Every structure is written in structure tokens, then in C-alpha cells.
Amino acid sequence: MPELPEVETIARSLQRHLQGAVITGVAVFDKLRDCPACTDLTAFCAGRKILNVSRRAKYIRVRFDNDTGLILHLGMTGAFSITPDDNQPQRHERVAWTLLDGRRWRFFDIRKFGRVLLCQDNPELDNHPVLHALGPEPFSPALTPAYLQKRLAGRRSPLKPVLLEQDLLVGVGNIYDCEALFAAGLDPRMPACDVTSAQWKCLLKEIRAILTKAIEAGGTHISDFRDVDGSEGKFVQQLQVYGHAGDPCPRCGTPIERLTQGGRSTFFCPKCQCCQIKRR
DNA sequence: ATATTCCCCTGGAAGC
DNA sequence: TGCTTCCAGGGGAATA
Q1: Counting CB atoms within 10 angstroms of each CB, which of A123, A158, A210, A225 has the fewest?
Q2: pTM, full prediction
Q3: What's the CA A167/C1' C12 distance, rounded, in angstroms?
């Protein structure tokens, strides 16, 4: 479900709603990946005050008052809600934290690809194994055309699936990958090592612009994305190619095509994005 | 080392 | 109506 803008939107909401809250209990209804058993998670969380909530890549970090914390991942279908506690588990509710002020913080996840990880100390919230190998954030100054060209030297893999690799750069998922390549006019099938410095410059600009716009819109609402308060992202209305197979390209009118790369759908305009394949 | 595939799991939409 | 097939935003492991 969530790419960077969705996770950012949710992390900001959690920060707003949970900062200062004290956890009194935890219920685990259906274990997510790596989620400890209910008794262990309860022992870990009970009595803890939440200092802050932040985002790194597509992970959400919840920092407690005793230098421990949680790392949460939404997988494909994760979502949260925070409401007065009626003590009634809802459909697809996997984990629930009860708060001292009478609220209940729920973690839903239909497909159960989400994760709940424990961090035993403060450094682990920044250096947990799942965070260790991650590439730079999309808005980091460290993310430059030179860095990308160096990392991808010799990589003949198609550009589009490469952009999904979180150890190269983080936060770009399938939707914004397609949208950014369209905006930059680059062929999703071109070898990653053939992207020129000028093309990287353009693509980086488009990735940042699209992520910025999507964050401002509160994310992209596709099927089951919801913010903590239940509101839907509005960016879906701005999607140019994703999910638009057969529709006319907004730029040239050629029908948008869909193809499969690395088992995922790619949407692109075969005319606007077809000029970069080098013959070797 | 790099590249492709397969799997985790559930549900909605489309096709017959 | 009911059954089958395909598809889905992520990520990691297994396989060539």
C-alpha cells in the first residue's frame, strides 16, 4: 500500500496523536511478521510513554521514554486508527495498544505483510538491521546523479525495477516509480547503467517533485490506503500513467501500455518514453 | 555479483 | 448466482 508519501502522512498523524501518550496494554490478535508474542510485546510496551514518532524510508519509528522503541512497517495493506477504546476487535485488526487516556491504537493489516519490530536501545532505532542497508532519502543532498551513476555502473537491469531497490534510494514504490519515469520521459526498460548524468538530474528532480506533491496531497488513495483518521489520499487524481493502461497519454495521446517487470506492473507511454534504448 | 522467480496473505474485480 | 483466475502499493529469500 504505502510508498514514502503515504508513510510520511501516517507518521505525521501518529506523531500528532500519540506524542506523550502512555501505553497501558497490548493485544495481539494475529501475528504479523517478526511480531513478538502478546505477552512479550505487552511486557515491552506496558507503562511506556511515547516520546515521538518518525519515519525512515518506509519504516515508522516509535520512540519510548526508556530509550527503547518500536519499528513498524505497513507492508502492502497496513493501516492505523486511534479511537476511544470500545474493547471490540475489528476485522483485520492485528495488534492493538491501549492508552492511559482511554484511547485504542489499532494496527490493521489485511495481507499481513506488515512488521512489528522491537528495538532494545536508542541506537537500534537508527541502526536496526532492517534500516542498516537502506540508501539515502530522496530529499537527501547525498542523493546525486554522480552517486547513482557510480552505484549502477555495469547494471544492465531495466531502470524501473532498479529504482524500487531500497538500498539504492528509499521511498520510491511502484506507483511513483512509474510516474517519475513518465515525467522525465525515460524508458522503464532502458538499462540502468545507460542513464546519463543529465537524465539522472532530470529524473531526480521529477522524483522529488512528485513525492512532494503526493505528501502535500496526503498520499495516493488506491483501494485501501487510509490515514490514521480515515481520510483518503488525494494524489490518485494526479496520476498520469499508473493504472491508466489503454487511456490516452496526457502528453501525446498514444495509449498507455502496461508491462510486467520483476513481477510488478509498469505503466508507460510507448511514444514519450521510448527513445533511450541504446543498441549494443 | 547480478538477475530473475517465487513466496508471504487476503480480498476485490473481472471473466466465464 | 457461483466458480475460477488475475491482480494488488513491499520486501526478502531462493534460484539461475
Answers
A1: A123
A2: 0.94
A3: 13
Over pLDDT 90: what percentage of chain A? 85
CA of A65 to C1' of C10 (A): 30
- C-alpha cell recorded at residue A113: 505483510
Distance CA A28, CA A266 (A): 36
In sequence order, the 6+-apart residues with CB closer than 8 A to the CB of A36 are A44, A116, A118
- pLDDT greater than 80 at residue A260: yes
CA A122 to C1' C7 (Å) is 40
- For the question of residue A257 being annotated catalytic, the response is no
A197-216 and A4-18 helices cross at what angle (nearest 10)?
40
Place of cell 532498479: A162
Decide if A3 is catalytic.
yes
Q: Is A55 a catalytic residue?
A: no
Pairing state between β A78-84 and A115-119: unpaired
Asked whether the predicted pLDDT for residue A225 surpasses 60, the reply is no
The pLDDT value given to residue A8:
94
- Torsion A86-A89-A93-A94 (CA) sign: positive
pLDDT digits (tens, 9 = 90+) for A62-88: 999 999 999 999 999 999 999 999 999
